[in-house]
Specification:
The complex is a heterodimer of chains A (about 675) and B (about 190).
Chain A: H1 2-29, H2 33-36, H3 39-62, H4 69-74, H5 81-86, H6 92-113, H7 119-143, H8 167-196, H9 202-232, H10 243-268, H11 272-295, H12 308-332, H13 347-377, H14 387-407, H15 418-438, H16 442-445, H17 450-472, H18 479-487, H19 491-516, E1 518-524, E2 529-532, E3 535-546, E4 550-561, E5 564-569, E6 572-576, E7 582-585, E8 587-589, E9 594-605, E10 608-617, H20 620-637, H21 652-664
Antiparallel strand pairs in A: 1-10, 2-3, 3-4, 4-5, 4-6, 6-7, 8-9, 9-10
Chain B: H1 10-13, H2 17-34, E1 53-55, E2 63-65, E3 74-79, H3 84-99, E4 103-109, H4 113-123, E5 129-133, H5 137-141, E6 149-153, E7 159-164, H6 169-187
Parallel strand pairs in B: 3-4, 4-5
Antiparallel strand pairs in B: 1-2, 3-6, 6-7
Classes of the chains: A alpha+beta (about 675), B alpha/beta (about 190).
Chain lengths: ~675, ~190
């Protein structure tokens, strides 16, 4: 009964989504306020029914209703309750429902938080989001219904994939999807602006906080995903350039470019058509990611089971949404006034540089991901693009970006005096070069040029940003001004600072762990010890340990540093009962300067085991960097200029001038 | 729009570029759907395997060629230490090796020998022999689309089946065992 209610709610939400796609838009085009005014109530209704559908599926998991095919395939009576919740989005159908549910929630959020916008804009944005959700819900109902019943009800479910029975999976998809779906808001604003032909800077101001919010979620999602892969997959890696990882990384890159470009459009009215393009690109890449994961076009460890009918459906959907919006863009964008002028050395030109680098990088990743497909389709031969190629591209682009980051905060709009700029940054440059040179010492560089380069960039970002804060507060004395500035007008400025620090933290972690990490594969007998990087690992043997839905062999390691015990680690080798699948559960002693990581291999008889020991210096900084970026973004959103209500009454230019005045004061 | 120029000028045309790029990409994706790497058979199926003569991982002096494999039914598994999906697959290969139903020969594709050896030490070695294809030449001859891929080759040196992407546990009973039976029957 409950699954049928969920199914019915899903059908109703599709009806509302169709209405939301049609009536508000027509209402704004032929001036029928009663139709345009339907946008908000329809968004509310859609969110309501999607919530019911989502709750119904969650309920089916909680009560082990194996008559629902999706529950039977992805749950089990022994599955711990927490994973009965996360299993809801653990496979194709449920994750689509989560997508649609979040889109409904974001639509409702716009309906509530858009009091300062004109009805016309709200109606159009919500209409665009209605169109998108129509596609997603229809996709579910016609090809991937999560509520489908089984007529021979199995006694027991097949259980959730053991890899996914983890807190990382509980968090990774929802945050990632909030990000994906969030970009639909920026997309909606861009399309609304294109439809209305009102292509001044106001749409940029409206969509800025929404875009930043989406970016924050996406950043969190990718960070959590990387952390999860690190500890759950048991081989200590944190990024694999897998097609599906790339599918989440590409919208992130485009979204990063979009955030920076929106700043220029809002403040200076420049880059208008470019920013629109990026808004379309960011969301298009989110949709493309969905296609790649679910169509079976590319092979990947992450891919959901493939089905050509699904592929065709999503491809048609992509053609309508992306093709349609690009056609609209081609039609409307030529009439856009190109906006303010700026000189070669200015904040605009540097942000343009940032945008070009990010876009080039985004297309390199896209090309690398699709290259095997393109080569094959053209019968040019078969190729595979692996880890080394992507790393090379990454290392070509990021250092340039990191150098630009250092200049950014000290740049002024319109024109910056290059001599003045260099004067200000002199000290920062000297310090960073010295640090870079120090890192050439063999014990630090480990023979790689990348370590000195990384250390130089880290120092450069930090010192240049400190310089920028001093410059901003140069007419004020004392630390209290800094705090007053942080709490007051400068909030989004400090958010940006923190996000940029996140980049530095990431570079530090990535450079250190890639070149200073130690890895040992050993055969050990109980009582034996092994030493890596000053740490002594004593293997105390393996004992069988039962778990709720698995049995495990649990190893015990005692770790010493200079004869002082620092940690006890208990890695497991699990066999999940329902599917008989073996799983390695690594044990990690984490710290800010190093992780110690133990992973059990195979039993070799006589109590001996093959195993892997890792020393991972500064690996946490990779994810702390991601968290800092996300936190920085959150601080930017909380800036009060996004919460003032009367903004839309002011013409964009004066508002831009006002913020400009406060920024540069 | 009344304020736009009705005749397309070169300036307007450039705004169409994103649309064209996207449509071309969509064309590839459409084609990709029908070349679904796991279901569309390789053009090499039921054709003789390409010739090769490659050094082995643990003894670079020792060369193995297609000729030297004649008379044996074997599974050629293309893998690389940089390949994430291969790791997922490795358990399955270990299982097949334990079952002893077919000899597995590894082809370490575009990989460093050190990394390859470390990989096998970590994950166990299911391979009868490991061939080293550092340049990727043999992989290309076999039409390797992306690692991992596996080819079932019979005693005549003919490719009988291609597994694109990782092998999964159900593939053993579902595909591999029936094929081996079929080959055995054919040989009698």
């Amino acid at each position: 009964m409950i699954p049928e209610i969920g199914h019915f709610a899903l059908v109703l939400s599709m009806c509302l989504a169709i209405a939301q796609a049609i009536f508000p838009l027509i209402g704004t085009l032929n001036n029928t306020p009663s139709w345009a005014g339907l946008a908000r109530p329809l968004a509310w209704g859609q969110a309501f029914f999607l919530t019911i559908a989502f709750a119904a599926l969650t309920y089916a998991f909680q009560v082990d209703d194996f008559s629902v095919r999706y529950v039977a395939s992805n749950s089990n009576t022994l599955l711990p309750n927490i994973y009965k919740i996360s299993a809801v989005w653990g496979a194709h159908e449920g994750s689509l429902l989560l997508w649609a549910f979040f889109l409904g929630i974001w639509s409702a959020a716009i309906a509530v938080l858009s009091k300062s916008l004109t009805q016309e804009v709200v109606s159009r944005v919500l209409a665009v989001m209605g169109m998108i959700n129509t596609g997603f819900i229809a996709f579910m109902l016609f090809t991937s219904n999560p509520f489908e019943r089984l007529f021979q009800v199995p006694v027991e479910g097949r259980d959730l994939n053991p890899l996914l029975q983890d807190i990382g999976l509980a968090l990774h998809p929802p945050t990632l999807y909030l990000g994906y779906v969030g970009f639909s808001v920026a997309f909606g604003f861009a399309i609304a602006a294109l439809i209305g032909g009102r292509l001044d800077a106001s749409w940029a101001r409206w969509s800025r906080p929404w875009t930043t919010a989406a970016w924050v979620w996406l950043t969190l999602g990718i960070t959590i995903g990387s952390w999860w892969a690190y500890y759950e997959l048991g081989w200590g890696g944190w990024w694999f350039w897998d097609p599906v990882e790339n599918a989440s990384f590409m919208p992130w890159i485009a979204g990063t470019a979009l955030m920076h470009s929106l700043a220029v459009t809002e403040k200076r009215g420049a880059f208008r058509s470019w920013t629109l393009m990026l808004a379309i690109l960011a969301f298009s890449l989110c949709l493309l990611g969905t296609f790649l994961v679910r169509s079976g076009v590319l092979t990947s460890v992450h891919a959901f089971a493939s089905d050509p009918a699904r592929g065709i459906f999503i491809l048609i959907f992509l053609l309508v949404v992306i093709g349609g919006s690009l056609a609209l863009y081609a039609w409307r964008a030529p009439s856009i006034f190109s906006g303010g002028r700026f000189s070669l050395v200015s904040r605009e030109s540097f942000l343009l540089g940032n945008n070009l680098l990010l876009t080039v990088f985004c297309f390199l990743v896209l090309f690398g991901t699709l290259a095997p497909l393109i080569y094959d389709a053209l019968e040019w031969g078969k190729i595979s693009v692996g880890f080394p190629w992507f790393n090379k591209m990454f290392l070509m682009v990021t250092p340039l970006l990191a150098v630009l980051i250092g200049f950014g905060p000290l740049m002024r709009w319109k024109r910056t005096d290059p001599v003045q700029l260099m004067k200000k940054l002199r000290v920062a440059m000297v310090i960073s070069v010295i640090i870079g040179l120090i890192a050439f010492i063999p014990s630090i560089s480990k023979g790689s040029l990348l370590v000195p380069l990384g250390m130089f960039l880290v120092a450069w970002i930090i010192t240049s940003h400190i310089t920028a804060i001093f410059d901003r507060l140069k007419h004020k004395q004392g630390i209290s001004h800094l705090f007053a500035d942080m709490a007051g007008k400068g909030r989004s400025y400090y958010g940006m600072m923190l996000a940029h620090m996140g980049v530095a933290m990431f570079i530090l972690g990535a450079a250190m762990v890639s070149h200073h990490g130690v890895e040992k594969d050993l055969r050990m007998s109980p009582g034996e010890t092994a030493e890596i990087s000053a740490y002594r690992f004593r293997f105390d043997g393996v004992t069988p340990t039962p778990g709720p839905n698995y049995t495990a062999n649990q190893g015990k390691f005692t770790i010493f540093l200079d004869d002082k015990q620092v940690a006890v680690l208990e890695p497991q080798k699990r066999t999940y009962l329902a599917q008989g699948r073996p799983m390695t559960e690594a044990a990690i002693d984490w710290g800010l300067t190093r992780d110690l990581y133990v992973s059990l291999g195979e039993s070799l008889g006589d109590g001996d085991w093959s195993l892997r020991l890792y020393y991972k210096p500064f690996v946490r900084w990779i994810w702390l960097g991601g968290l800092a970026m996300a936190l920085g973004g959150m601080i930017c959103i909380s800036d009060r200029r996004y919460r003032t209500k009367k903004q839309e009454k002011q013409p964009a230019q004066t508002d831009a001038a006002n913020t400009l005045a406060t920024e540069n004061s | 729009m009344s304020d736009t120029n009705p005749t397309p000028t070169p300036g307007r045309m450039r705004y169409l570029i994103p649309l064209f790029v996207f449509l071309i990409m969509a064309g590839f994706l459409l084609k990709g759907l029908f070349m679904d790497p796991r279901h569309i058979p390789s053009v090499l199926i039921n054709k003789p395997a390409p010739e090769f003569n490659l050094p082995t991982l643990y003894n670079p002096e020792k060369l193995i060629s297609k000729e030297s494999m004649k008379g044996k039914v074997w599974l050629l598994n293309v893998w690389a230490s940089w390949c994430g999906a291969c790791r997922a697959e490795h358990q399955v290969l270990n299982t097949i090796a334990d079952m002893g139903i077919v000899d597995i020969v590894g082809l370490d594709y575009k990989d460093e020998a050190v990394d390859g050896k470390r990989w096998l030490k970590q994950l166990g070695n299911p391979y009868k022999e490991v061939l080293v294809d550092k340049s990727g030449r043999t992989g290309i001859d076999f039409g390797v689309y992306g690692v991992p891929e596996s080819f079932l080759i019979d005693g005549e040196g003919v490719i009988r089946h291609k597994f694109t992407g990782p092998l999964y546990y159900p593939d053993i009973k579902g595909t591999l065992v029936p094929l081996l039976d079929e080959i055995k029957k054919g040989a009698k």
